[in-house]
Q: What sequence folds into this?
């Protein structure tokens, strides 16, 4: 029986042991689950522990995942006990409280205003940004800085070291704002592909005034140089800081940016917490382009923190490696530091602090530890509210959450205090497990059954002496026994008593150490005696090495721990170096870019590097107009688009989506290829969100606000894409869908809605709907005025030297007027609104809007910037139409005086728009009788146009004629003054001429249109007679003599500038000498002519002449039977045709399959605006295109029979040279001086020769009265010409009717008979317009039989007219 009993007892003992082991293992697994609750409850689909992006690069664990694993690192490997065998596979469960505590916070902020001011002094130039926010109807303001890094004159600070490799050498701390959910499915996905994964150790150099330096306390700054000792002098200071770069794509709804705003506001209201919490020292936007906060854009935001030497986790590693412990005094300082952080934050009702050994950092600047809690911190009482009043109405649920968070933070501190008392023999996770088990048994009132090792209170009493550590032990006991308490204020007051006593004790110790430094041996003996009497494990502590001071320079003392041990490939190293250099676009950027091009790089990284290189190019770009710079950026984005188009990818990768987003923001074309790819990626993300919608926050759900904003963004970009291709119907459809969607979902009070209205108004104005444009723009302006006010609120109080004196409950605000630069689109709204009023003939409101737009533009640009001068010209146009000579003269005098000063300083202008302004100023002076000033500014305009490389032969004729006219007026005025007569007598008809009659035409075209009789200038006299003679010989088959004269003229023109007149003469010479020249010579000559035409001619004359030359070259190549060259030349011709079609967008007419759908395209817009002459020229190009298509077809039909190539080339060469289009072009050159004189010569050669011999002086001696009548009649006829309606009749009928109507208008029957009896030479002596036609009626009737359609869309327009009827 005894034996059986013993066996049975052993068996029961084994079973009991196994049960205990099983229970212990289950509890252990449960504790691990509680610590890692974040991973188990909020694990992202895109990123489970590590994420592979599309490039194949592994993304490291984000900070939140590292923090919850830190307790596992608390025990060294050599001291870990062997794990027990698993006896249960039951999954541990996490509590709801833990899930809520470890979840990252989303702060509900609403941005309602943005103010951007330009601050500039001798040392720096930067933006001062104020963002107004609302948190539950409470208004707060966050302050930031900004610099335009692509503009050389902006400077706020400089960064050291110069390379990323040096800055990253000791970077071990993960970034604080690394996660974002805007282009991610889940918030926990890291988004650091265009920034850095770790905080960089940098030195930020900034110039501060001495007065600012004195007001800053507790700042360890290195003074590099002192300029002077005056109060206003600047001192260059260097701050040792940490740098983090984040991207901002939406200032209204992006959670990461809103978190930054929340903490900036928190720091403002609780300034004295900077000794406890890691603060954002400086926040600076790094703008690549001027800020446009109203429209989608991607910005980089630089966040600077005080230099963080190491964390408690690093300190733990130091102690374990050195097998040392903290000294008793050092441990007390650390404990007091942690307790003060807890008390200081919860006194301000800030909770969810998240104390871990990875979030507590030693800050050398303050010589203490600080807590980093950007991810989870919340506030119970809203900023600026009275706690006593708010707590009375606070929800009980919120206060319970506050109490639970307080206890979690409190016991996290107690665990760390106990752990760092004896690091070598303890494990932090074991201490946490012991505490949790102790509290479970406390609830069950089973503490008596606990073993000593598992009793949390006994563990504290064992480690801490009742005498030496009595205050710490008192704190620990109060914390343990307040587990069931709920009065946080009472617990804080109790803890304060213990901390005050502990602080006094430490102060006494510091005083003793300072006073007894000379007797260190006696002090060490006394400390040894105290340690022998107080510690329980005496022998152990005597052998363990103690640290008497916290490490300050961990890089030198513990280099192995301080070094960044991340292994980075050469490609990633170079990529990160480029990003680092692009922060301020340093000198090493270009070298890094060239090195990156030689490596085998991922496509997405290559795309982003190309974008950065574009901005680097813009920084070196000499043009100061940002309008031109943005056009260059858009053009260079084509390279990036070609790269990313090769990826047929519709993934959900955030790098891919953000790249597509940035391409769309920078490209003015808004290419559909990129837009469709972006839409696919967002749709794929949306599908995955639908599957996990219950796990996402409301804002980030499939039907949340973020997805709604993305939908609106895509619709607006689609409208802009259609607008860039002049497809107005589709553009209107898309933008109306975007506006309707926002109205349905109550998004009226948002920037996206205001921007949508702006785009809608722009489309409506271009599509000739000014009333609709005005309504949209007025609503848009209301939203823009709300978000971008002209004032800002500042605190009305004196500078506070002591942060503890800051009382947020007594803050008073006052409004000050500012010049807001938050967006230039507000000026665009004013401009478009002004032009819409102008289109509906409301000139007063138009003028007011244009003046406001000019005022807004002058905040960012100087008075000679293209953006400003364009608005000035529009205002001058309205003043001219109103005959308001006073305001027009004021503007002219302002610019004239400033230009005189600029010319005295040696400045030269090089812009065409400045040339136009100078020409108009000269014309205003001429109208006012200031002839000398007028000549001066006309000559300046001519010189400016030459500097802009836009001057040519025809323009020179206009300038010469204008100067001759002013000189004649000046001479006449001189003779009257000499003869003591009035300069303007009562009989002078010019007194009755209005400003509009004199200058109205100046705004219709770039240069003043003179009457035809004044075109016989000195410049034209050099070549005009020979060209007229040659034109007559060509029409009368005098080819040989014409070629001889052309050769002589070409030799003469070779000595001067080769402009468009030289190209036209060469063109004529080539046409006559095709049969006599070598094919190689013809080919070289044609390429030279094409180059000149392409440089000087404009649409559509350029396309006509270039296409004609290319077709002649095709005939030459066909005669040589060189098939390869023919097919290569086909590409050039087709490219010319494609460019021509892209300009007019012919396809937009044929894209409408329904007859009831009206599509407005550029061609019809040209017709409605009265540019009928351009329609004639377009018809000539279309006929050449039809001829090419027939020619091409014949070539392909005879590819097998090359013997017919020569005959085919000769046949089509004659058609090209003598084509109907070419002949019609000569006949319809009514606005060309050469064509008009050519026709006069054919009518009467003898009389014309007499007219040419007549000197110019005879014309100048004509009476002033006759001259004014000529100008007056010209103005009236010009207005009638602008009101021409597009007609379906032939060109001959139009010209005959126009001629008869012109001569009969305003004349009696006798005058009409007198005109018919007047000989032809006398008619030519009278002034007439360039648009007049001298074709006899009989010839016109004969030519009417020719089948010539001037409108290629005649059938389409007939259908539309029938529908309207």
A:
């Amino acid at each position: 029986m005894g034996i059986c009993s013993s066996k049975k007892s052993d068996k029961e003992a084994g079973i009991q042991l196994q049960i205990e082991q099983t229970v212990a293992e289950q509890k252990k697994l449960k504790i691990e689950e509680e610590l890692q609750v974040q991973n188990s409850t909020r694990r992202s689909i895109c990123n489970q522990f590590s994420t592979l992006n599309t490039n194949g690069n592994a993304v490291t664990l984000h900070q939140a995942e590292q923090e919850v694993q830190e307790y596992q690192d608390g025990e060294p490997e050599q001291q870990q006990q062997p794990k027990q065998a698993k006896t249960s596979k039951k999954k541990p469960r996490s509590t709801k409280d833990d899930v809520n505590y470890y979840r990252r916070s989303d702060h509900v902020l609403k941005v309602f205003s943005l103010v951007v001011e330009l601050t500039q002094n001798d040392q720096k130039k930067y933006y001062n940004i104020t963002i107004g926010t609302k948190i539950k109807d409470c208004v707060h303001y966050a302050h930031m800085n900004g610099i335009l890094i692509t503009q050389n004159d902006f400077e706020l600070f400089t960064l050291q070291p110069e390379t990323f490799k040096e800055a990253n050498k000791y970077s071990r701390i993960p970034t604080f704002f690394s996660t974002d959910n805007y282009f991610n499915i889940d918030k926990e996905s890291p988004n650091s592909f265009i920034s850095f994964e770790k905080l960089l150790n940098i030195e930020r150099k900034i110039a501060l005034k001495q007065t600012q330096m004195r007001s800053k306390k507790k700042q360890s700054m290195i003074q590099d140089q002192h300029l002077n000792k005056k109060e206003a002098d600047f001192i260059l200071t260097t701050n040792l800081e940490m740098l983090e770069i984040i991207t901002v794509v939406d200032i209204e709804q992006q959670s990461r940016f809103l978190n930054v705003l929340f903490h900036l506001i928190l720091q403002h209201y609780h300034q004295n917490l900077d000794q406890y919490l890691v603060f954002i020292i400086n926040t600076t936007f790094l703008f690549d382009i001027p800020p446009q906060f109203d429209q989608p854009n991607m910005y980089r935001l630089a966040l600077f923190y005080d230099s963080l030497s190491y964390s408690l986790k690093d300190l733990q590693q130091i102690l374990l490696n050195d097998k040392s412990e903290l000294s008793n005094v050092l441990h007390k300082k650390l404990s007091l530091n942690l307790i003060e952080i807890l008390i200081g934050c919860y006194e301000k009702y800030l909770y969810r602090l998240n104390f871990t050994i990875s979030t507590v950092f030693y800050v050398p600047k303050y010589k203490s530890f600080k807590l980093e809690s950007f991810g989870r911190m919340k506030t119970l009482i809203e900023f600026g509210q009275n706690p006593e009043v708010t707590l009375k109405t606070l929800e009980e649920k919120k206060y319970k959450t506050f109490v639970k968070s307080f206890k979690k933070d409190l016991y996290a501190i107690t665990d760390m205090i106990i752990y760092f008392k004896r690091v070598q023999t303890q494990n932090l996770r074991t201490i946490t497990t012991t505490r949790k088990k102790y509290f479970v048994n406390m609830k069950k009132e089973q503490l008596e059954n606990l073993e000593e090792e598992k009793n949390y209170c006994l563990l504290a009493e064992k480690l801490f002496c009742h005498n030496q550590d009595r205050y710490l032990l008192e704190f620990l006991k109060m914390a343990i026994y307040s587990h069931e308490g709920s009065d946080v204020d009472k617990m804080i007051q109790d803890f304060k008593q213990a901390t005050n006593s502990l602080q006094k004790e430490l102060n006494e110790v510091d005083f003793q150490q300072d006073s007894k430094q000379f007797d260190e041996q006696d002090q060490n003996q006394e400390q040894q005696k105290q340690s022998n009497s107080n510690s329980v494990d005496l022998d152990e502590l005597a052998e363990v090495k103690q640290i008497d001071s916290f490490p300050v320079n961990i890089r030198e003392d513990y280099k192995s721990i301080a070094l960044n041990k991340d292994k980075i490939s050469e490609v990633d190293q170079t990529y990160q170096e480029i990003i680092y250099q692009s922060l301020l676009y340093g000198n090493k950027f270009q070298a890094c870019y060239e090195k990156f091009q030689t490596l085998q790089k991922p496509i997405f990284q290559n795309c982003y590097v190309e974008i950065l290189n574009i901005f680097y190019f813009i920084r070196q770009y000499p043009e100061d107009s940002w309008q031109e710079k943005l056009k260059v950026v858009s053009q260079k984005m084509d390279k990036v688009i070609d790269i990313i188009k090769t990826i047929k990818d519709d993934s959900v990768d955030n790098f891919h989506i953000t790249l597509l987003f940035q391409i769309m923001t920078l490209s003015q074309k808004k290419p559909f290829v990129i837009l469709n790819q972006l839409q696919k990626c967002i749709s794929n993300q949306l599908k995955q969100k639908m599957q996990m919608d219950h796990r996402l926050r409301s804002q980030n759900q499939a039907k949340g606000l973020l997805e709604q904003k993305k939908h609106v963004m895509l619709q607006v970009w689609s409208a802009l894409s259609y607008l860039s291709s002049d497809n107005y119907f589709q553009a209107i459809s898309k933008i109306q869908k975007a506006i309707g969607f926002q109205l349905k979902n109550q998004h009226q009070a948002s920037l996206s809605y205001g921007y949508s209205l702006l785009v809608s108004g722009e489309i409506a104005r271009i599509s000739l709907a000014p009333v609709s444009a005005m309504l949209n723009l007025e609503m848009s302006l209301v939203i823009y005025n709300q978000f971008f006010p002209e004032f800002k609120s500042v605190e009305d109080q004196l500078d506070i030297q002591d942060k503890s004196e800051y009382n947020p409950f007594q803050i008073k605000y006052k409004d000050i007027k500012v010049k807001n630069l938050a967006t230039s689109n507000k000026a665009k709204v004013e401009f478009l609104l002004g032009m819409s009023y102008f289109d509906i003939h409301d000139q007063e409101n138009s003028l007011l809007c244009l003046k406001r737009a000019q005022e807004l533009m002058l905040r960012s640009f100087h008075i000679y910037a293209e953006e400003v001068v364009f608005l000035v010209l529009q205002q001058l146009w309205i003043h001219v139409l109103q005959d308001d000579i006073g305001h027009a003269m004021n503007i002219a005098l302002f610019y004239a005086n400033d230009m005189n000063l600029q010319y005295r300083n040696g400045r030269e202008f090089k812009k065409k728009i400045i040339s136009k302004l100078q020409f108009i100023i000269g014309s205003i002076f001429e109208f006012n009788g200031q002839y000398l000033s007028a000549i001066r500014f006309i000559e300046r305009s001519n010189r400016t146009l030459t500097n802009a490389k836009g001057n040519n032969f025809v323009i020179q004729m206009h300038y010469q004629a204008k100067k001759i006219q002013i000189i004649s007026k000046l001479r006449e005025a001189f003779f009257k003054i000499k003869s003591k007569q009035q300069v303007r007598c009562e009989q002078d008809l010019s007194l009755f001429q209005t400003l509009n009659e004199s200058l109205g035409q100046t705004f219709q075209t770039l240069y003043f249109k003179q009457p035809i009789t004044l075109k016989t200038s000195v410049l034209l006299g050099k070549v005009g007679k020979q060209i007229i003679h040659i034109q007559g010989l060509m029409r009368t088959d005098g080819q040989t003599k014409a070629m001889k004269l052309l050769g002589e003229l070409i030799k003469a023109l070779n000595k001067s500038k080769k402009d468009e007149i030289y190209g036209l003469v060469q063109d004529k010479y080539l046409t006559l000498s095709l049969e006599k020249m070598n094919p190689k010579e013809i080919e070289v000559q044609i390429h030279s002519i094409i180059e000149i035409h392409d440089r000087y001619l404009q649409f559509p004359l350029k396309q006509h002449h270039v296409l004609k030359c290319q077709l002649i070259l095709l005939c030459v190549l066909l005669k040589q039977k060189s098939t390869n060259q023919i097919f290569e030349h086909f590409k050039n011709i087709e490219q010319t045709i494609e460019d021509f079609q892209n300009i007019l967008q012919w396809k937009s007419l044929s894209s409408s399959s329904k007859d009831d759908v009206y599509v407005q395209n550029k061609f019809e817009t040209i017709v409605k605006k009265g540019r009928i002459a351009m329609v004639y020229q377009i018809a000539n190009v279309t006929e050449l295109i039809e001829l090419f298509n027939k020619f091409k077809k014949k070539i392909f039909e005879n590819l097998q029979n090359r013997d017919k190539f020569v005959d085919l080339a000769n046949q089509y060469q004659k058609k090209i040279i003598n084509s109907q289009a070419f002949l019609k072009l000569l006949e319809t050159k009514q606005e060309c001086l050469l064509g008009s004189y050519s026709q006069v010569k054919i009518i009467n050669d003898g009389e014309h020769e007499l007219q040419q011999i007549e000197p110019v002086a005879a014309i100048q001696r004509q009476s002033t009265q006759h001259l004014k009548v000529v100008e007056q009649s010209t103005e009236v006829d010009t207005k009638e010409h602008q009101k021409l309606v597009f007609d379906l009749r032939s060109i001959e009928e139009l010209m005959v009717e126009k001629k008869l109507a012109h001569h009969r208008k305003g004349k009696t029957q006798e005058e009409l008979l007198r005109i018919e009896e007047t000989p032809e030479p006398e008619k030519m002596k009278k002034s007439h317009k360039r648009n007049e036609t001298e074709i006899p009626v009989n010839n016109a009737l004969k030519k009417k039989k020719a089948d010539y359609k001037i409108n290629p869309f005649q059938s389409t327009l007939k259908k539309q007219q029938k529908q309207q009827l």
Notes: Residues 2-35 form the longest helix (34 residues). The chain has a mean pLDDT of 75. Residues 271 and 918 are 56 Å apart (CA to CA).
